[in-house]
Each structure stands twice: as structure tokens, then as C-alpha cells.
UniProtKB/TrEMBL annotation:
<keyword id="KW-0597">Phosphoprotein</keyword>
<dbReference type="InterPro" id="IPR022953">
    <property type="entry name" value="ATP_PFK"/>
</dbReference>
<feature type="binding site">
    <location>
        <begin position="75"/>
        <end position="76"/>
    </location>
    <ligand>
        <name>ATP</name>
    </ligand>
</feature>
<feature type="binding site" description="in other chain">
    <location>
        <begin position="195"/>
        <end position="197"/>
    </location>
    <ligand>
        <name>substrate</name>
    </ligand>
</feature>
<feature type="region of interest" description="C-terminal regulatory PFK domain 2">
    <location>
        <begin position="388"/>
        <end position="765"/>
    </location>
</feature>
<comment type="subunit">
    <text>Homo- and heterotetramers.</text>
</comment>
<feature type="binding site" description="in other chain">
    <location>
        <begin position="647"/>
        <end position="650"/>
    </location>
    <ligand>
        <name>beta-D-fructose 2,6-bisphosphate</name>
    </ligand>
</feature>
<feature type="binding site">
    <location>
        <position position="552"/>
    </location>
    <ligand>
        <name>beta-D-fructose 2,6-bisphosphate</name>
    </ligand>
</feature>
<dbReference type="GO" id="GO:0046872">
    <property type="term" value="F:metal ion binding"/>
</dbReference>
<feature type="binding site">
    <location>
        <position position="188"/>
    </location>
    <ligand>
        <name>substrate</name>
    </ligand>
</feature>
<comment type="pathway">
    <text>Carbohydrate degradation; glycolysis; D-glyceraldehyde 3-phosphate and glycerone phosphate from D-glucose: step 3/4.</text>
</comment>
<feature type="binding site" description="in other chain">
    <location>
        <position position="615"/>
    </location>
    <ligand>
        <name>beta-D-fructose 2,6-bisphosphate</name>
    </ligand>
</feature>
<feature type="binding site">
    <location>
        <position position="106"/>
    </location>
    <ligand>
        <name>Mg(2+)</name>
    </ligand>
</feature>
<protein>
    <recommendedName>
        <fullName>ATP-dependent 6-phosphofructokinase</fullName>
        <ecNumber>2.7.1.11</ecNumber>
    </recommendedName>
</protein>
<feature type="binding site" description="in other chain">
    <location>
        <begin position="559"/>
        <end position="561"/>
    </location>
    <ligand>
        <name>beta-D-fructose 2,6-bisphosphate</name>
    </ligand>
</feature>
<feature type="domain" description="Phosphofructokinase">
    <location>
        <begin position="11"/>
        <end position="310"/>
    </location>
</feature>
<keyword id="KW-0418">Kinase</keyword>
Length: 765
């Protein structure tokens, strides 16, 4: 089969380049497939000539870590006219291009669909005008189109995250962190304006991730009299001893009557009414710059692969589709349905149907909004529930633990509970290192790395007697355990001790938080995203060094215990040549193939290599062994260096994803415990001994779910501390294909076309 593809891009977002690279990679095994890049978007199609160039494996190398778009983007007036589209069609026909992959926002994608609809008419006119022959028209009788959404606003309906959104959040959070330190020193109010003309996603997630006092978004204008409410909130926070107030404003923020709410207007209000020292910062195009985050690189790479599969499977009958992300799954959606729902949001806002607007934005947006409202807007109730909930961290520290503790504490206080902090894990529970923790004591915790409560790996089995005595002494009615594999095993030990100790018969919830991402019952753990970004940025620097010296191969060891998640995902995000992990067994022959592959690679213009190795992937093939093997076998062709990344992977300030994920998990766990406590309340006391009263709260495919600790035992390899089934193993082959290995991609789980329209009709237009 002869497929000639073209890619073009519109708009400017991060991760675009990650989406471009796989196109070349994924189709390499089909040698007769030819790729072209359309430079400068639709304008490049219209102008033709040098604007449509063949793309090769080597030409897309080193693009992964670049922000913006290497193949350029331009708004095209010509393409809006039929004449312009006719010229574009002629240029494509002359090159035999019948497949188009468009990366951009809803405008670019609508344009692509229009182009496809008109295609046969344009060809007929071209034949009539003698611009192309009948034979050429016949060969290019149909145009296939697939879209990928690149937009930092995350304003396209049908996809959880558009390419570029996560990186923009990284930039915003860097600025927020920098500003908050100075603001705390000076006791100031800061108003931060972020991008998002018609979509409040960036503002909303920023507000969640930095614990802002107030957020203004276009989808949900504040109630009448918000000025008084805002001033009262800020004054209350100051009275409670807070030295810092943060207000986040989306550039498209409006009031209920549709009038704009600007950062200057808010500044004037706060200064005039409260006399607070107030500063505004408008972030502007800083949000579009910089290097893409690990999440965006992986998203771009996965979407690029899915786009190619969609094009290869397309027929003249299939509607143009967009590939997008739902939870952690790649899905395909009809392009025009998504565009329609995106337009419906704008219509709902214009007509004042703001609840509909938030629902139409999708589940992820709605969850963020509901969590934000719960944590920011409610004053603690006067009536206490007489329930004591204890919170603890277990295992190795990781970024995002503090965000989960903060939201759990505040959600508990809102429910009327007394919250207790347990220091130093199960040791602290056994030795009585337990004290009340209040609203203010967790302020500013969201952006702090590590574990403020203190954490240890000790398991409870040898201290059950002391633990049960302290549960009784401190009158603990429920337990939130935040941590890694030890948190899961420790929780299980407490459940098994229920037979002997009645004090253990209380509801418990385990929140996975570990850089290793190895807790059964969850696809993601808090902390893994931060570690992944740390590894990726280090690998970028290493690659830069290797690119400078030429003919150099770096062997990098990552953490993760026996779980290969970090090595695999960092391999995908950093463009590694191989990633050795425990789950994907390898032998000396495989190592030999990898070395030969690198020797071949050194003959191209890409004279560098990056090999990742998970710390426990093989007891005998150690990092030193692999380094020595590569050094010996590559003698005279390349030299080697090795890097063991070590504990830097557990440190650092949490990424926006980990702050947001931790915040949502903490809040949800306490709401679940509150319901469980009502179920378990009998004859004036709490008694919980059913399996479903002790759960892991995990992210599964598309939702946060609670699973009983005991039910997850069958899916757990206790010796190697990993779950038996791990979703990310399915995307491992992508990394090998992108490193130019001729292997098959498992497409058994390929995404069928889904629909978004049914979500719309449910709202009763």
C-alpha cells in the first residue's frame, strides 16, 4: 500500500513536535510510506513548493524537547477562500498526498473538515481548468483527515487534555511559586491573570494547584454581590493569620451580565475597600514558551501514533476524526461532533446557562470545579461531627503528599470532623506521635515537596498492640494512609488484625503516593509525574551533552524498585534508544541487538544514544555491566558514560498534575470516609469489619474508584512489590518503534470511534 502523508500545524503549543516525530517513527516499518511536512500550516499547502517537504527519520530527531512547533504555523487568509483551497488541493494532488494530519485548535480542524468535504468538487474544477489530469484526480479521489488538538487553553470538548496544556500549567506554577515567596515576606495580595479567553481550565487548575483564595473563570461568573464576598474572604484569611492572598483571573473572566472582570478592576476593589498592598501580574506569552513537560511529550507521541493508525484504517465512509485522551486511554471522536460541542459551550455561556457550560466542558473540568468549590468556598460548620480522622504518610517521600494531606485535612474540617496528624508513619501511630491539625497549619502545603508529616517504611505487623492502644487512646474513628507499596501492605496488615483487635475495625483508605507508581488498584500514583519530569529534564541535558561531543552513548539508571514505569515513560518522553525493565525480560542477545542498533545509528547524522535502566531490572545485568558491555562492544564507534540519578527523583516541588491529583484524591477520600462512617455507626459506636470498609482510592482508566484492599491481593506480586497487570506496558512498543526498531505494535485495543453528542442531548437543550 502506498500512503503519502502530510502534516501541518496551526496555533502554537508545546508537545506539537512530540506529535510530529511519531508520525515518522510509526510508519517506518512500511517502507513505501512517504511522509511530508507542510511548513507554516495551511499557508504552506497553498504556497506549495518548498513549503511541503519530505520528512525523514533524521529530520525529526531532537524535536521532542523543543517548545513551539518546528514545522511552523501561520494563520492563512488564502486558505479561507475557495481559490486558496483549490491551490492547496492542486499541490497535494501533484505530490500524491491523500492523507492529512492536522494539529491545531477547533478553527484549524473545522477548516480541515471543510477542505475534505469540498475535495471532489475542487478536483473537478482543477481538471476542468486543466490544472491536473483525469488520471491524477483518479489517484487522489479521496482525502483522509485526522486531527490532533493542540491548544494551551484545553478548550476543545471531547478530550481531557489538549497537547500543550500541561506545559502551560508548568510555566504558570513556576511563576506562582516564585511570587508566593515574595508575597509572604511582604504580606501582600497577588492577582494573577492567566490565558484563556473562552475557557477557564488554566485558571481553575492553577487555583486548585496553589490553593488560591478566589478564581474567576468565564464558564461560571461569580454571584451578584461578589465584591463583598471576595473582600470578606480576604479579610477572614488575614484575620486567621494568612500572610498571603492569591486571586487567579482568566483573561476572559466575565460577570453574570456578561461584562468583563479585569485584574485591574479587582486590584482597585481590594486596595480601595481593604487597603491591602496589592500587585497584579499578567502572565501573557510566558505560558506558551519553554520546553514541553513529560506529560505533553508522551501525550503528543501517543496521539501521533493513534493518528497514523486512524489514517491507515480510514475509508471514504469514515467521518474525519480527532484522536484524544480520556483518562489514560487514547480514543477517537468524530471531529465535527467535538467542534459542535465546543461551540455549544460558547452558546451556553452567551445565553447565561453556566451550569450547562461546565457540564459540556466534560467530566474532568466539572470534577476540578466541584473540588475547588468545596475546598475554597465553605466556612467550617459550627456543629462538630464528633468524629476523629487520622492522616499519615507511609514509605518513601514523594512530591504531592503534602497536597493530599492539605485537602484531606480541609475537607475533614468542612465535614465537621477533628483531624489528627500522625507523624513518622506507623511508628508514630504506635508511639503516640499524634496531634490535632487545623485549617491554617496546612496552608501553603500544596506546593511543598517531600512529606511534612514525616514518613517511614516500617510496617505495622510488629506494633499492632501499641497501635490498637493508641487508636483507642486518641479515639480515632477513621484512617487516611497516604503512601507507596508499604501503605498498601500496611493497610492490609491492619485489616487482617481486625480479628484480634477490635480497635482496627474502623474505615480506612489508602491513597497511592510514590515515585515508583507500583500500588495495586491505581494506574497513577501521586509523585510519579514529578519524578518523571525530573528524569526527563536530566535526560534532555545529557542528550545535549552527547549531541555536542558526538558518538556518545549515555546509560542512565532510574528508580522505581521493580516497577518499570519511570524508565519506560521517561524513555518515551526523552527519546531513549532502549529502556531495560524487570517486567519486560531481556537476555544477552537483546543487549547485543541494542548495541548493534546503536552502531548502525552512529552512521546517520544522529550520533548519540540514550539508554535507560530501571534499578532492579536484572540482578546480574547491572548498570555497571551494561556500561562495560556497551563500552567494549562500541569501541572505536562510540564511547559511553553512565549516570545514576538516585534520590533527586524523590525531591523537587510537585508538578501541577501531582498537586491537582493529590488535592482531588485527598478530598475524595475524606468524603468517602464520611459516608462509610455513617454506614458503620451502630449502637453509639463505629464498627467496620467488612472488606469494603478498607479501600485503595485509585485512578482506573477514566475514573477515581475505591477498591477493597483484600480484593486487590490476587492482582499483587508481593515479592517484587508490583501489580500483576500494568496498563503502561501496552505503550512500551511505541518507544521501540520511535527508536527505529522494526517491531509490531499491538493494536488489539485500538480505539473505535466514540461519540460526544449523546453527552450533549442529556443536558436537554
Amino acid at each position: 500500500m502506498h500512503v503519502v502523508q502530510s502534516m501541518l500545524q496551526h496555533g502554537r503549543a508545546y508537545g506539537y513536535n512530540a506529535a510530529v516525530a511519531p508520525q515518522e517513527g510509526i510508519l517506518a516499518p512500511h517502507a513505501i510510506v512517504q511522509w511530508h511536512h507542510g511548513y507554516n500550516g495551511y499557508q504552506g499547502l497553498v504556497d506549495g513548493g518548498d513549503h511541503i517537504r519530505p520528512a525523514t527519520w533524521e529530520s525529526v530527531s531532537m524535536m521532542l524537547q523543543l517548545g513551539g512547533t518546528v514545522i511552523g504555523s501561520a494563520r492563512s487568509k488564502d486558505f479561507r477562500t475557495r481559490e486558496g483551497r483549490m491551490m492547496a488541493a492542486r499541490n497535494l494532488v501533484k505530490l500524491g498526498i491523500t492523507n492529512l494530519c492536522v494539529i491545531g485548535g477547533d478553527g484549524s480542524l473545522t477548516g480541515a473538515n471543510e477542505f475534505r468535504t469540498e475535495w471532489s468538487g475542487l478536483l473537478a474544477d482543477l481538471v476542468k481548468g486543466g490544472k491536473i489530469t483525469e488520471e491524477e484526480a483518479k489517484k487522489s479521489s479521496h482525502l483522509n483527515i485526522v486531527g490532533m488538538v493542540g491548544s494551551i487553553d484545553n478548550d476543545f470538548c471531547g478530550t481531557d487534555m489538549t497537547i500543550g496544556t500541561d506545559s502551560a500549567l508548568h510555566r504558570i506554577i513556576e511563576v506562582v511559586d516564585a511570587i508566593t515567596t515574595t508575597a509572604q515576606s511582604h504580606q501582600r495580595t497577588f492577582i494573577l491573570e492567566v490565558m484563556g479567553r473562552h475557557c477557564g481550565y488554566l485558571a481553575l487548575v492553577t487555583a486548585l494547584a496553589c490553593g488560591a483564595d478566589w478564581v474567576f473563570i468565564p464558564e461560571m461568573p461569580p454571584d451578584e454581590g461578589w465584591e463583598n464576598h471576595l473582600c470578606r474572604r480576604l479579610a477572614d484569611q488575614r484575620a486567621r493569620g494568612s500572610r498571603l492572598n492569591v486571586i487567579i483571573v482568566a483573561e476572559g473572566a466575565i460577570s453574570k451580565d456578561g461584562k468583563p472582570i479585569t485584574s485591574e478592576q479587582i486590584k482597585k476593589l481590594v486596595t480601595d475597600r481593604l487597603g491591602f498592598d496589592t500587585r497584579t501580574t499578567v502572565l501573557g506569552h510566558v505560558q506558551r514558551g519553554g520546553t514541553p513537560s513529560a506529560f505533553d511529550r508522551i501525550l503528543g507521541s501517543r496521539m501521533g501514533v493513534e493518528a497514523v493508525m486512524a489514517l491507515l484504517e480510514a475509508t471514504p465512509e469514515t467521518p474525519a476524526c480527532v484522536v484524544s485522551l480520556s483518562g489514560n486511554q487514547a480514543i477517537r471522536l468524530p471531529l465535527m461532533e467535538c467542534v459542535q460541542v465546543t461551540k455549544d459551550v460558547t452558546a451556553a455561556m452567551a445565553e447565561g446557562r453556566f451550569d450547562d457550560a461546565i457540564k459540556l466542558r466534560g467530566k474532568s473540568f466539572e470534577n476540578n470545579w466541584n473540588t475547588y468549590k468545596l475546598l475554597a468556598h465553605i466556612n467550617p460548620p459550627d456543629v462538630k461531627s464528633n468524629i476523629n480522622v487520622a492522616i499519615m504518610n507511609i514509605g518513601a517521600p514523594c512530591a504531592g503528599m503534602n497536597a493530599a494531606v492539605r485537602s484531606a485535612v480541609r475537607m475533614g474540617i468542612i465535614q465537621g470532623h477533628t483531624m489528627l496528624a500522625v507523624h513518622d508513619g506507623f511508628d508514630g501511630l504506635a508511639h503516640g506521635q499524634i496531634e490535632p491539625i487545623n485549617w491554617n497549619s496546612v496552608s501553603g502545603w500544596t506546593g511543598k515537596g517531600g512529606s511534612n508529616l514525616g514518613t517511614k517504611r516500617t510496617l505495622p505487623s510488629k506494633m499492632l498492640e501499641q497501635i490498637s492502644l493508641n487508636i483507642a487512646k486518641f479515639n480515632i474513628h477513621a484512617l487516611v494512609i497516604i503512601g507507596g507499596f508499604e501503605a498498601y501492605v500496611g493497610g492490609l496488615e491492619l485489616v487482617q488484625a481486625r480479628e484480634k483487635y477490635e480497635e482496627m475495625c474502623i474505615p480506612m483508605v489508602v491513597i497511592p503516593a510514590t515515585v515508583s507508581n507500583n500500588v495495586p488498584g491505581s494506574d497513577f500514583s501521586i509523585g510519579a509525574d514529578t519524578a518523571l519530569n525530573t528524569i526527563t529534564s536530566t535526560c534532555d541535558r545529557i542528550k545535549q551533552s552527547a549531541a555536542g561531543t558526538k558518538r556518545r552513548v549515555f546509560i542512565v539508571e532510574t528508580m522505581g524498585g521493580y516497577c518499570g514505569y519511570l524508565a519506560t515513560m521517561a524513555g518515551l518522553a526523552a527519546g531513549a534508544d532502549a529502556a531495560y525493565i524487570f517486567e519486560d525480560k531481556f537476555n544477552i542477545k537483546d543487549l547485543e541487538v541494542n548495541v548493534e542498533h546503536l552502531i548502525e545509528k552512529m552512521k546517520t547524522t544522529v550520533k548519540r544514544g540514550l539508554i535507560l535502566r530501571n534499578e532492579n531490572c536484572n540482578a546480574n545485568y547491572t548498570t555497571d555491566f551494561i556500561f562495560n558491555l556497551y563500552s567494549e562492544e562500541g569501541k572505536g564507534v562510540f564511547d559511553c558514560r553512565k549516570n545514576v540519578l538516585g534520590h533527586m527523583q524523590q525531591g523537587g516541588t510537585p508538578t501541577p498534575f501531582d498537586r491537582n491529583f493529590g488535592t482531588k484524591m485527598g478530598a475524595k477520600s475524606v468524603l468517602w470516609l464520611t459516608d462509610k462512617l455513617k454506614e458503620c455507626y451502630r449502637h453509639g459506636r463505629i464498627f467496620a469489619n467488612t472488606p469494603d470498609s478498607a479501600c485503595v482510592l485509585g485512578m482506573r482508566k477514566r475514573a477515581l474508584t475505591f477498591q477493597a484492599l483484600t480484593e486487590l491481593k490476587s492482582d499483587t506480586d508481593f515479592e517484587h512489590r508490583i501489580p500483576h497487570t500494568q496498563w503502561w506496558l501496552k505503550i512500551r512498543p511505541i518507544m521501540k518503534i520511535l527508536a527505529k526498531y522494526n517491531i509490531k505494535l499491538d493494536t488489539s485495543e485500538h480505539a473505535d470511534m466514540e461519540h460526544v453528542i449523546k453527552k450533549r442531548s442529556a443536558l436537554g437543550k
